[in-house]
């Protein structure tokens, strides 16, 4: 028998543990214990069974994930053989899905990234910081003037990133209830393929109408830029609308979940919260704290997923064309080799090498925006409301295990 591991060495389809594993109710902020228990010092990958009975490779280690997520033999193409789909809806509609930024590879993917590069540079995002601070202060003023206790998603977590992404894309904020509701439906793991397609279609039509209007009357926003590219023949509406849809959904739902989860987590760690409040004027401290919160919570808990394009051997495991790979980002961020004592929340640790924004060519386009939003919120919220506390037991909170972005459905807070 060769030195190289085969499927049977690393678990057959019948033996393969189920992915994703459930979270522990006593520690809902931590990755599932059953996931972390699969880590094996000798093997970089092992088979797991996902919802459709297929058995892709699961990669847990930080170093292995960085290597694989930048390997061109792995594809983000959701229609490629072996791609481990997150949901039934994704699998059923994989072949009809328009090529876009999140499901293409190589030069085709680079073309999509180039379309957004200038809109999301660190410099441009940094220029938004004063507006983000202003909106955050305004929302906190309203929160303080309103009912106590209140629900944090409604009061702060959703409005801030929604306002910002609306401003960037040129989407009217008055429509926030409409797009937040539809984003929630498309992100749900258990949504039927029909409902998912219907909802995604509604959002894409909505974006297409906005782009069409901006082609006649452009503004300084991303949808106007896409409209201009259509006019120049560089892009079609069939391509532009799904891209706008991805940006709108990814641009508000992720940051919103991080604000709510991060607040709840900090309220469980009095010592860390006190340190953050004390250092809230120190940008270096706040920057580090946000990286640690991103690491600890890793809200894209079901990502990242790829299809294998050609056979290769990876650190003793033979991986074949047509198989799937899941790089579990929460597991990488709790890898003790990369982050000593990962279960300890230490806001001042060096955590910026976390993989919460992914790794390789598909690394998050909106990460600078998300970082600034989180830095502003976490340095402002606890300074402005030092008595902020949870108005519910953690055991009674509903965590979003059934959504593609982990979070908390409602977070009642009081002060
Ligand atoms: C805390 C907030 C966020 C987190 C944790 C997050 C996480 C991620 C991750 C893990 C990926 C890579 C997925 C993969 O490799 O398959 C990704 C990609 C992406 N994200 Fe984010 N994201 C956040 C905020 C945002 C925001 C604010 C935007 C838009 C303004 C955005 C837009 C995108 C886009 C367009 C992609 C696809 C990039 C590509 O495939 O090339 N994200 N994000």
General description of the model:
This protein has helices at residues 33-36, 62-69, 88-92, 106-117, 122-126, 129-145, 152-157, 159-169, 176-187, 193-216, 222-231, 237-266, 270-278, 283-297, 329-333, 367-384; strands spanning 45-47, 57-59, 74-75, 150-151, 305-308, 312-314, 317-319, 324-327, 389-390, 412-414. It is α+β, with helices and mostly antiparallel strands. The strands form three sheets. Strands 1-2-8-5-3 form a five-stranded mixed sheet. The chain has a three-stranded antiparallel sheet with strand order 4-10-9. Strands 6-7 form a two-stranded antiparallel ribbon. The longest helix is centred in the middle third of the chain and has 30 residues, at 237-266. Mean pLDDT is 93; it is low at 1-9. The structure holds protoporphyrin IX containing FE (HEM). The site of protoporphyrin IX containing FE (HEM) has 26 residues, from helix 12 and helix 16.
Name the descriptors.
single chain, 415 residues, globular, Cytochrome p450, binds protoporphyrin IX containing FE, alpha+beta, five-stranded mixed β-sheet, three-stranded antiparallel β-sheet
Radius of gyration from CA coordinates: 21 Å
Q: How much helix, percentage-wise, in residues? A: 40-55%
Give the averaged pLDDT, no decimals: 93
**CATH architectural category:** Orthogonal Bundle
CATH top level class name: Mainly Alpha
* Total of domains: 1
CATH fold-level topology = Cytochrome p450
Shape: globular
CATH superfamily: Cytochrome P450
- How big a fraction of the residues is strand? 5-15%
Low-confidence residue ranges: 1-9
Q: Going across the major beta sheet, what is the strand order? A: 1-2-8-5-3
Q: Give the number of DSSP strands.
A: 10
**Bound small molecules, deduplicated:** protoporphyrin IX containing FE
Distance between the termini: 65 Å
Quick one: biggest sheet? 5 strands, mixed
Summarize the helix and strand pattern as letters.
Answer: HEEHEHHHHEHHHHHHHHEEEEHHEE
| Oligomer class | single chain
How many separate helices?
16
Q: Return the structural class.
A: alpha+beta
